[in-house]
Amino acid sequence: MKLQLEQLQLQRGQRTLCKPFDLSLEDGQCWGILGSNGSGKTTLLHTVAGLHHDYRGRIVLDDTAIEQIPRKQFARQAGLLLQTNEEAFPGTALETVLTGRHPHLKAWQWESEEDLALARETLQQVDLAGFEQRNLLTLSGGERRRLYIATLLAQQPQLYLLDEPANHLDLRHQHQILGLLQQLCTTRNKSVVMVLHDPNLAARYCDHVLLLHEDGNVESGPSEALMTPEKLSVLYGYPILHVASDAQPLFIAG
Amino acid sequence: MTRTPGFLLLSLLLLSLVSLAISLTHGSMALDVGQVWAALWAPDGSTATQLVRELRLPRSLAALTTGALLAVAGCLMQVLVRNPLADPYILGISGGASVAALLAMLAGVSGNLLTGSAFVGALVAMLLVFVLSRGHGQWNSNRLLLTGVVLAAGWGAAIGFILNLSPDSSLQRMMFWLMGDLGFARANALPTIVLLVGLLASLLLARQLNVLTRGELVAGSLGIRTETLHLIIYVIASLLTATAVTQAGSIGFVGLVIPHLIRLLGYHDHRILLPAAALLGASLLLLADTVARTLLAPQQLPVGILTAFIGVPLFLYLLYRGSRQ
Q: What is the annotated signal peptide range for this record (chain B) (predicted)?
């Protein structure tokens, strides 16, 4: 699978969120989107997920503009984790995960034993084994976050789009979940695009980054080239220092 | 608690049959099950046969259908406006029907013409909400809800106005209509057909409804055309409501509470929720109607009073039990 953004430009009212830019994303790549609050990271992610149509340029998945792809078929290729979820009538954890199988089922079809097994497996992957019959209302913020990630895993797309997947997660689960996503890229050749707020998580797990500047300028490329204290200081409008450490680079606020 | 959907649906089906038996045997003249059975399958010219076949059975069937219509419409409306407080009347469809029906009564109309005007009133209300809530072409649950609620308030004022203009002689009949009453309901296949078609169509959409309760963006990212789905739900729910209101006036409580009762029992999947709500709504309304026509016999009470009398304690009990788990 190949995702191409051609001269993509995003506008909200009078404000330009992204000036026209090109980007090409291939199987096995793990991208991080960084930028300050309100810079348009979520809008960009939702646009790529096919939820916004008011953009200029083209978004092309395997030589087809995403508007031309039937919605359900597109949902088998690209899945999205939202920043926040609002459930009108919260059900059990298992029922929630099973909604991830929706694009794979026909209108009149029930979830099969395989779907159930897959749902249980994804719950296990996010440390929620045994939570199947728990109502969502009884879960903590972090547990709910992991449940939604399990739902995305059950969707089994080729392209994973995630809006702040580390939100609400404790330190161990942040690394466990991001490690899982990285593994999807390296061992199963899937692609990941995630909005992150912590440059250290991006430096550690993403091989490419996209920096979304407040003035609408977009920089993208391999992490090593772009993840420098100078560029990050400009991006966040705040001094960021680089601390040498044994294992990996470490960015701290100055 | 068992969570086998088959068991639930079977129990509820049994409940409807028991309710039907109770309704057919009770009334001004008590009959035993054998007499009712004979009247149904081996009719003779007896009073029992006439009573069962011409009075009790049509009214009971109307109660079953209306209860099911309201419960299914309630489920759909709650998903559509994403609000647990929604009921079939929240968007003012019953208000439009009531205004039309009261005007018809004021004009001295009855029978099919009255039913027809109520249905037309419901359709007008439905179109009005739809057109006014579209705004710039973007469907929005909040806007829909607010438009509907405000229009419903407008219909309410119109109803008050008509009641004030009406002569005392027609007031009681109007009150019965407004509170909901199955006394006018006649044997008619149309509501049953609407119910079956509506239920079948909603069942085809049931998994999409499950996804939609998780939010419009989630539904969109899982491959659902939310605008189209909203429109379809709106049309089905409105037609079900219009049919119920036309048949029996604005019977309260069934459409609001039945979906919650099933959810409190632990079933959120609309593939189970919708048929279960239909069966439970049918039973509740039939039982309520039986009490309404026997409690103070020969005087009859509007059934809407009884649905609340039975439903309120039942709902509170389940809510209390649920919060302790």
A: none
d(CA B284, CA B86): 19
Please report the pLDDT score of residue B322 as a whole number.
Answer: 66
Per-residue pLDDT of chain A (254 residues; tens, 9 = 90+): 899 999 999 998 888 999 999 999 999 999 999 999 999 999 999 999 999 988 999 999 999 999 999 999 999 999 999 999 988 899 999 999 999 999 999 988 999 999 999 999 999 999 999 999 999 999 999 999 999 999 999 999 999 999 999 999 999 999 999 999 999 999 999 999 999 999 999 999 999 999 999 999 999 999 999 999 999 999 999 999 988 777 777 888 88
Chain A residues lying within 8 Å of B213, measured CB to CB: 87-89, 91
Q: Are B74 and B263 spatial neighbours (Cβ–Cβ below 8 Å)?
A: no
pLDDT at B245 over 60: yes
Residue A19 neighbours by CB distance under 10 Å: 14
Beta-carbon contacts of B243 under 8 Å, excluding residues fewer than 6 positions away, are B69, B119, B190, B191, B194, B195
C-alpha A181/C-alpha B151 separation (Å) is 49
Nearest chain A residue to B78 by CA: give it.
A88
Which three-class secondary structure state does DSSP give residue A59? strand
Is domain B85-250 in CATH 1.10.3470.10, yes or no? yes
The strands making up A191-195's β-sheet, listed across from edge to edge, are: A78-81, A159-163, A191-195, A30-35, A208-212, A218-222
Please calculate the CA angle B7-B9-B10 and round it to the nearest 5 degrees.
65
Q: Considering only CB atoms, which chain B residues are within 8 Å of A51?
A: 217, 220-221
CATH number at residue A188: 3.40.50.300
Q: What is the domain extent for residue A151?
A: 2-253
User: First and final CA of chain B: distance in angstroms?
Assistant: 11
Q: Are strands A191-195 and A30-35 parallel, antiparallel or unpaired?
A: parallel
Listed in sequence order, the residues at least 6 apart from A197 whose beta carbon sits closer than 8 Å to its beta carbon are A34, A164, A166
Long-range contacts of A17-21 (CB under 8 A, 24+ apart): A17/A43, A17/A44, A17/A212, A17/A216, A18/A44, A18/A212, A18/A216, A18/A218, A19/A216, A19/A217, A19/A218, A20/A56, A20/A57, A21/A218, A21/A220
| Contact of B89 with B153, CB cutoff 8 Å | no
CB atoms within 10 A of CB A218: 23
Pairwise CB contact (< 8 Å): A87 & B222? no
Report yes or no on whether pTM surpasses 0.90.
yes
Contact between A102 and B223 using a beta-carbon 8 Å cutoff: yes
Total domains in chain A come to 1
Q: How far apart are CA A163 and CA A197, in angstroms?
A: 10
B94/chain A closest Cα distance in angstroms? 24
C-alpha B134: how far from chain center: 26
Asked if B15 and B279 touch (Cβ cutoff 8 Å), the reply is yes
In the DSSP assignment, the letter for residue A107 is T
b or e along B273-286 (b: 16 or more beta carbons within 10 Å of the residue's beta carbon)? bbbbbbbbbbbbbb
A95 → closest Cβ in B217, B218, B268: B268
Mean pLDDT of B12-19: 96
